[in-house]
Every structure is written in structure tokens, then in C-alpha cells.
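Cross-posting from the modeling subforum.

Setting up a comparison between two proteins and wanted a second pair of eyes on the formatting. Protein 1 (sequence, then C-alpha cells):
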Amino acid sequence: MSRLTATLVATMLVVAVSLSGGLFLVRHLGAKAFAARICAEQMEAALGAAQAMRADVEEMKSADAGEALRARLGAHAREAAARLGALSAAMADRDPSDPLARIYLAREDGAAALARRLLDGAQAPAPDALERDLDALIARLEQARPIHRQEAERSRFAARVAWHGAALGVPAILALLAVFAVGPALSRIETRARRLEEETARSMRLANLDPVTGLANRRRLLKSARDLATRAAAARTGVAALRIDIDRFRSLNQAWGHAVADQVLRHVARILRAEARADDVLARAGADEFYVIAMGEDAVERLNQLAERAIARLAEPMAAADRSVGEIRVAARAGIAAALPKADQSERTAEQLLVSADAALAAAKTARTRIEILSDGGREQIERRRRMLSELREAIAQSQIEPWFQPQICARTGRTLGFESLMRWRHPEQGVLAPGAFLALAEESGLIDQMGELCARRALAACAAWRAEGLFSGRVALNVSARELRDAQFVDKLAWDVEGAGLRPEDVAVEILESALIDDDSDPIIRNVAALAAVGFSIELDDFGTGHASISNLQKFRVDRIKIDRGFISGLDRSARKRKLAAAMIGLARSLEIEALAEGVETAEERRILTEMGCDLLQGFGIARPMPAHMARAWLLGRRPAVAAS
């Protein structure tokens, strides 16, 4: 073999080995680049599912959570969990100190752990808890996004370099890399890195902002509150929080649509920006929940004045973007709380401050005042409310919510024509509690729906049992909350329960408070009441005469009975004015062929006067007090000769 031939063979062997190694490297780096791209896509899909869940939770807080919304929330939760499960498996072999491994695999607050909690939480949604976990998950994924992109970019570039090396040979590729690949690639990488940094910064800003108002969102609110508490502790001064909510925002949203509701939210944000100081923290934490946090010795007084000005400005008419809506006037309520933070407890102080502001707002709603400032005993009140809320949940689980029955009799004959079902809580320690002790908290927490369903089913069962014994042929009247009446499925659910008890819709009356009705015919309550009447349920307007549109309500749908409020009945025998008002309402009902029932009848003289006026039915302590089912049965047995309603 000549020297030249040997050299050529050696060169070919080197090239062959180089190409073989290059091909192996190409396969390895190509697979790595593919895996990096798939992980990035999985992360984007998981982030999209989490953001979709966030939108579902926002909708859940501003509207009744129907089956469709719950199903959508569950689907998004399953999507996020599946994507993050795949990502966690891909990260399992990484070093625990790897940034992505920490993001996905952390035991308590890793993205995978958060996704599992969200999947469990979607089965029985609690919007506030879901919201906290979603904010944490979205923050984790926003943190992972630039890392995934950088890994995908590096892996793709390495695979491309290896491919050129295998195709052109090691010596050639070295020269080509120097001239054609490395320089341009580095330039492109630098450009893309700069874009990634800008995109990451933009994503971080958006992750902390409410998209509707541009104010800080809940996640940013918590951080800003902690920062302000830390500054207040260093300055040895106080910090205060204001929470302001729009009255009946859910009704507004359902009646006028999301576009008008968003316009109202932006209007509130503009007013708060105009009234607050530059160093105050402003946020919209969800639905119609707005917060302002201020620091200083005068923070409480300043926020009180801010709330007064904001509420006054919101009450001024505002032109809706949708011309068919016309002018909008918004009513609002506010709660204010204060704290004196300590240097080592700023995080706890911030969280407690927001909880206290929520409690102050709840007190304003209960007392029907515009602004409430949490007193020194407010924290004890918060703890009492928390305990009662826990006990209420236990009461539902243990069937401690039960109906009590108050008879409704014919004014002329004394026959028992019906019973009103009234909710009671048989507390294991405090005995039987009337609604005044727990109803406001039940409505505020959303538990009123479950309590109402439980109480209604038991009342229907009792009525069916009395009918089966031949003791009773009248109607049982169910009290229904405004929240229940806004449920699109309410009519179907009630009809199902009535049929399940062996009754007909004609055997059941639905009592509706006038205060629950609004003038807008597109409100879900108006539609549901009309649907109830169409199915055959008897419709009763409770506390008639106290609403803002008593007579106009009689035109909106078929009303079978008005219940004259006890305020017009008590002391009737001693007040000529009350007698005239009661007579006018009874006359109105008779002219419209509607039954009139007088509530709160307590004396024989009141009963006599109402009977002479032509009132159809009577109810009150003067007839009988509310009683549990077994005592109501005894009442019917004792009056057996006079039963059988016409």
C-alpha cells in the first residue's frame, strides 16, 4: 500500500468515525430538542387550562354556578392535571436543585401538587380556595415559561450544529461553524433572549393585573399588603384596609350582560384611582371586590372619607355603553378595618387585615348601612362567624336544618287551609335557633341553597304524610331566597322534589319576598317566578306593602295570594290609619281576584276586624306559633272535624 493510499484510508476512517459519532450525537440531541419542545408545549397547555379555570371561577363568583359551569371547570381542571402530570414525570429524573424540578415537584406548592388540589377542589367548588391555588399555579407556570423556552432554544441549536457536523465532516464543520453558523446563531440567540426577557417581563406584569380594570389582582394585592405592613411596622404606624362591593352586582351582570358589568367595574376603578393617594394600594380581587389599603395614623379616617366620596359618586347616573340599557346608578357598601403591624408578623397582619375588612363589609350588609368600621371586638366577631360557618356546614351534613310549620286558617270558618314552612336549626348545644341567628351568614356564604333544599324536602315529606292520613288537604308554603330564584335550574329541581314526595305543584305555594324582585323583566328571578306559575305552583308575595313596587309586581306574573306585612296588622285595633291601609290592600286583592292573608295576627280583636274587612286567611301567634312536624300533626288531629280545605 502506498503512502498516499494509506493516508486516504486513514482520512476516510477518521471521517467515518466522525460521521458515526456525529449521527449518534444528532439522534441524542434531536431527541432532547424534541423533548424540550414537547415540555414547553405541555407547559403552555397547562397554563391555558389554569387561566381558563381562573375565568370559570370569576364567572362562578359573579353568577350562579350551574351544572354547565361546574362541568367546564372540571374539564379544565382535568386538562391542567393531565398536562402537569406529564411534565412532572419528565422532571422526575432531574436533580432536585434544577429550577424546573423545584417548580413542578415541590411537595406543598409545586405545580403538580397545586394541580391535584385544584382537581379535588373542582368536585365541590369553593371559589375563594380555588382562586388562591389558581393564582399560585399560574405564578409557578409563568415562572417556568422562560426556562422552558430557553431550554428548547438551546437544545434546538445544539441539534442543528450536530447535524451540520455529521453532514459536512468535522474539519469542514469547524470552518463552517466559525464563518456561517456560530456568528449568526449567537446573534439570533441574543435577539431571541432579549425578546424572551421582554415577554417574560410583560407576562409578569399581566399576571399581577386585573384584565378588566387594570388594577392589581388578588395575587398582587396580597404581596402589596404584606409590603405595606412591613413599611408600616418599620415606621411604627398603622395600616388600614377598605373593601367596597357593588350592591346586587350579580343581578346587574345577569340582567344587562358582561359588557355593561365590565363598564361598571371600570367606572368603580376610575373613581377609586381619583380618590386614593399615589402610595395607596388599589386592587380588584374578583367579581365586584375592590380593596384600598393605606398607611398612616389617619388611615382609617381617610379611608372612611374616601368610601363616602366614592359611594356618592357611584350613585350618580352613568350612561351605559349599551344604549338600550340607558342610565346606570350603582349602590355600594364598604367595610374598613385597621391593624398595627409588628416587624416579624407583616404577612400574618396583611392577611388578617383583609379578612377583617371582609367582616366589616359583611356587618354593613347585615346592618344595611353603607359603611362599617370594625370595632375592637371585631376580631372576636370574626372568630364567632368562622365557628358558626363551620357549624352550619356540619348542620347540613347532619340534617339539623328542619322545617317548622305555622298554620294558616280561613278567617271566616277557622279551617286550616295551609301551613307556612319556616326554617329552624336544631343546634346540638344551643337548642332550636330561629333564622335571625344564622340566615344572613348562610346567604353570604352560599349555604342557603343547600339549607333551603333540605328544609323544603322535609316539609314536602311531612305534608305528603298528613295527606296520606287524611288530616290535611291544603297547601304548604315554602320560603325561597333570591339566590335560589336566580338559579336557572330551580324550577326543575323544585318540580322534581314535589313529584318525588308524591305531591302536585298545586299542593305547594312559593313565597317570594317583594324585596327580591327588581323592575327589570330580564332578571332571572322574574323569569323563574313566571315559570313557577306556569307549571302550577301557587305564587305568594310575602311582606306585601313593604316593597318599592308592590302594585306593579302584581302585573308581572300571576299572583295567587298577597301576605300583608305584620307592620300593617300589629295594633290594627288601635290605629285608624292602619285599618284604612289594611282595608285598601284587602280591597285591591279582592278586585284582582287574589287571596289576602294577614300576617302577625296576635289578638282576638285584630282577628275580628280583619274578618269583617273580608280578609281571606289569617296567620300569627294569635292563631298558633310555629311548631315542629310532630306538633303540627297533633294540631291537625285536634282540629280534625274542621279540616279539608276547599
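Protein 2 (same layout):
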Amino acid sequence: MPSETLRMENWEHLKELQLADPTYNQPGHIDILLGVEVYNEVIQPGLVKGDSGSPIALKTHLGWILSGKVRVSEGAKRLQPHVSLHLNVELNTMLRKFWELETGEIETDKLTAEEKRAEELYEKTTTRDRDGRYIVGLTLRNDPPVLPQNSREIALGRWKSTENRLMRRPELMKEYNRVLEEYVTLNHMEKIETQDDNETKNVQSVYLTHHAVIKEERETSKLRVVFNASCKGTNGVSLNDELLIGPPILEELRTVILRWRIHKIAFIADVEKMYRQIKVKKEHTDYQRIMWRSDPNKPIEEYRLLTVTFGTSCAPYLAIKTLRQTAIDEGSSYPKAKQVILRDFYMDDLLTGTHTDTEAIEMREHITKILSAGGFKLQKWCSNSEKFMKEISKNQKVNETHTIDILNKEKVKTLGVTWSIKDDHLSLPKQNMIAEERPMNMTKRHVLSEIASLFDPMGWIAPSIVLAKIFMQKLWSSGVDWDQSIPEELQQEWLQYKRELPALQDISLNRWINTKQNESHLELHGFADASASAYAAVIYSRVIQKDGEVNVSLLTAKTKVAPLKPVSLPRLELCAATLLSKHLKQVAEILQVEPKNIFAWSDSQVTLAWIHGDPMRWKPFVKNRVLDIIEKFDSGHWFYVNTKSNPADPASRGIMPEKLKDLEIWWQGPDLLKEKKVKLEKGKPLDTSLEKRKEIITAVITQEHENKENLTLMQKFSSLDKLNEALPSQHVLKSPKNWSSPKKLKTYAMDDN
């Protein structure tokens, strides 16, 4: 946005364009700041230039945006640099959606047209070489593709800048060169010789920029070379604009971790250089050229990347799809290992297990054979079984405490979990935003960025995380602007919350939930509760051993903040039950638990009365949610629990971190689950009229012999009472003897509430 009013001139090249910001010449409030990754997504092919000194127009999904130097108003001669990219997004509206009630959206597995095309392209273009390694094509959107222009000049300039930065840190320069030299050694990249370049001058090509990303926590190489396929050409197009990202085929982390916890013997590994084990077909390698030299005193050289490239938008899809395709093509001899590859990978990380050491060793061998047939090698094996680890060569082992490297991967959320192998415990990493110091200016934007960095994918610390969600709602209600300091009272409340966050680092729970093959019985028990602030659902496993021993484990939890618009507590309790039914079904499918072993609990007698009653008796709000609930689990699965024994209660109200770490009912479940036989209570019979539709009794009168005069009068009035009121007393109508008895029909009045 300009800092002062700009003079609007009669630029001919802009007259027919629909601008993203028609008032680009006026200073104004910035609604939202877009990161470069968003900017890259909204840019479209199209560039319009005018005379020298006039702005350039660039086409985007939002309309045309302007950039360049223009004159300010009031006749000033000086030129002011100007960029106009205005997105009229109301941030408060976006934030408010965070606590709006769920609307029961229909989930679908149908693919979009672009996702179908990506799948079709993979099936048509994928081949294998003589060694069994897969060769894939890039998922190009168009044929012929629309490619970035002048990418070579851009890549050359970017490399010179990158090289200058690297030269200031010789050790980094050395590592950077080592990585790219390894590409050449492993035949993952080839140099374009002069004669080759002459032969391909007429071939379309794209040059990618590249830079270093350093991850200090990595056990292997700290430096990764990242290729930027989102870099725009002079026509405003990038290679990623032309690539289809494919359908979402990656398993959710929550799914993989839940399944991993049922195995007594657990092991993990990851695929070595997963992307680079998959070749790109020759005609597409020219879309992956780079500029590089290992010695600043030598000429800059050109190379082609020959494998799936980290930084292209289709790379995650191609990699996961190919890993799964390997299991399908090579797994017929090892059906169990095939299923593990299809279900238990999260990107390039394998999290799986078995019930015995022998089975684990055999499973590892079968998985290795299947994947090696496709050119994939597993490394960094780790297990809680000593026998298993003895089978692994020393150079493949990792440290005793192994942090599963699933942080900051492409196309997935920022997720991670720490597994302490010695005691077989799981814990969460340090929360990134933990800092006791008070910022100079604690704004709403600053606090919300801290809340966004809180991490709890499984809901293990949901009772404390929900407090941050509730605080977010308080900030919105306070009415302060995004960059305005929040009230002192709220500042103190937030600082106190942050001071207690380190207590969450001390929390851990058992990885294994004590399930044993053919020797134990697994049940799922879900609890729902609501308060005026939020509603929650939490799920526990209950495992009964052959000798009667009972083991209860926290599996997962979900919370949602109550809407600001007043909603009755019974309705919120019903929303909690709806949330529980949804996630209980998902967990049951993941762990393959039979319906007869699934139990849902609520401490709301009204909610249970609604669930056990006829859905058509209730108003639409209740009816729709009851139908949704009983579609997943019929009313026979729902039981009553008193509030003191309901572990979802603290999650609906919120608990400070210091108290949460010692909250036994949350970590171990209620005492009722620890009994050898759970007492199932339906609660006191409650015939509630709350949320009941109005009943209308309609009398249907039939006449055997027509009475024209009476029928004519009756047609003018909606009821016999109104007709009698309108007639003189001597003409009051009575039911003739020859009329049959009225038939009463019970109906329900339509009601939008």
C-alpha cells in the first residue's frame, strides 16, 4: 500500500484490466500480509507493460496487481516505488470460524479433476529400468506446458548471490559442494556438456534456483540443498504453477501413531534419500536444470537433476505413490509386509511393529526385500527389542533416545513425537513459543502467532491447549486491533500461562497399550463433555488380559471452543457427543475394533435422552446431530457417567499445565474403566420436552352425504372454532350425526431452530 496518495493517470494499458485493488492509489489499512509462498500461489501467467515510467500489471487469481514507480499527488515530481496487492480478507471473520459450531459437512473421498489427471499421468507414464528402479514423469498441467521465461538468467543471478553468502562461511560452502558433488557421484545429476547443450538449444528447459537449509537437530547431514521450483520467470510463471500436486495419499500422523501403539515390539526406520531413488523420465529432466560450480575460480556450469526433486510441488505425491506402487508390484510374496508399507509409512518414516521378536525380525527382512526391488533402502533402524537390534549392523543404529524425524516435511502439518526407547515412552517436544520474557509490544498478532506454534497432534495435552484456544477467543472479543497492545489484564493472563508451559515437557505416556495377540480383549471408551467455554471428546483403550488384568491408556482427544453467540449447555453437550462419535469411529477403524466393543459416555442426561429418543421429535439442531451420532453408533452404545468420573470434563473447562501433569483421571482414565467389569449405566429415564417440536393435532372430518351450504362456509375458514366465531349464535355448526368420527393426525410444526 502507498504511504501517501498517488496520482492516477490515464494509462491506456490498464483501462481494460480488472484490478485486485481499485483504490491502489490511496493509503489504507493492511488486511493481511501474504508470505512469499502464498504470493507464488496467486500469480498467474500474464504481464502487461506500458510506456516508460508507468506501472507494470501482473495477473493474479485476485485480479491484476500493479508495481513500478509512479508520481505522488499534488503535482510533486518525485517518483515513488509502488506495489499494489490488496486482498480484502477480514481476518476477524477467518478467526471467528475457529469456534463456529460444526455443520455436519459430508466427507468425501472423490478426487477432483486435477487429482484424477495426476493419477492418470502417473499410470500412463511410469516405467521401470533394468534394475527395477521406477521412472516417473512430472505431473504437467498442460500439454505443451506453460513454462517460466528467462529462468536461466534468473538462476544465474541467484546462484551468484548464494555463492557470495556461502563464501563468507567456508565450512558451509564445503558442505554445500559436498552435497551437490554427491548428486553427481550417485548419478542423481549430470553435467550438460557443450555438445549436449547445442543439441538441446531448441528444447524447452527450466532452470531452478537453489539454496541451503540447515537443520541442526538432524543426526545425518545438517545441510540440505533445496531447489526452488516456485521461482517465477519474467512471464510470472513458475515450474510449480505447471505441476499438479496429486491427491492426498499420505496417511495422517495420528493414524500411524495410533496403529503403532498396539505393537509390543516396535521398530522404526526411514528411507534413505527417498526422492532421489526415483528417476524422472529423460524428456522432463530439462525442466530441472541448475547452475552451479564448486570453485569460484572456475566457470559456472549447467546440470540436469535426474531424479524426483525436493522443491517441486509434485515431489511428495510422486515419492509416496511410488513407494506404495513398489508394495503393490513386489509384495505378493509377503502380504503382511505389503500391508505395512501401504499403511505404516508417514512420508519416508516407517513406524510399525509386531507382537514378538521373531516376527519383527522377519517383518524387517520382508519389508527390506520388497522396497529394495524398487531401489529403496531403509536406514536408521531402531527398536525396543534387543534381539531385533542385534540383527542390524552398527552403522544403521541411532541413539538410545531417538526423535522421529517427521518435523517440517512437505505437504503435511508440522508434527513430531519423541520416543524414549529404553522405557518405551512417548512425549512431546519442547513447545517452540515457550519464553518467559515479556515482549516490548504484546499485540494480538504476536500472541496469536505464539498460540499457532503450540503443538499437540494427538490431543494428549488438550486440557491445557484448550486454554490457549479460549484465550484466542478472548482476544477477539476484546476488540483490539491486530497490531495494538492487548489490555494489561490479558497480558498478565497470557504470561502466566506461558510460565507454566515448561511443565508439559515432563509429561510422557506409555507407547504400548498392552495389546497381545490372541491373549487380550480390546475395548474403546470415549467420553464427551461441555462447558460454557468449550466442548471436548477423549478416547481411551481398555485392554483386558486373560488373567483379568485391566490396562487403560489415553489414546487421543479433541477440543473445540464454544461459539460467542450464546448456545445452551444441553446443545453444547450434544455437540460434544457429535464430536466424540466422529472421532470414536475413526479410531475404531484405525485399530479395527468391533462395534460391540465400543462405548460412548456422557454426563448429560438430556443429551442421552435425545440420543435414545426418536430423532424426528426434536428441532432441526438436535435432530440433525442425533441422526449423525446414531448413524455412526446406535443409541445402544451410549451410557451415563457422573461428572466427577468424566475425564472429558477438564478438557472442556481447561487446566493449567502445572495441574495437568498430575491429573490422574486424565492420564489413567476414570476408575470405572479399571474394574474387571465395567458397570454400564443408561442413567435415569428422562422424558425431556427440551428441543421438542410443537405437536399439532389435526381433525380430519369425512361426510357421507354432501351438505353444500356447510361445506362452502367451511372452505372459507381454517378451523371450526373460527367459523363459529364468525357466525351468529343461532347458526353455530355442530357435527351432524351422519358425519363420521373425526380422525386425529399428529404432526410436527416446522421449526428453523
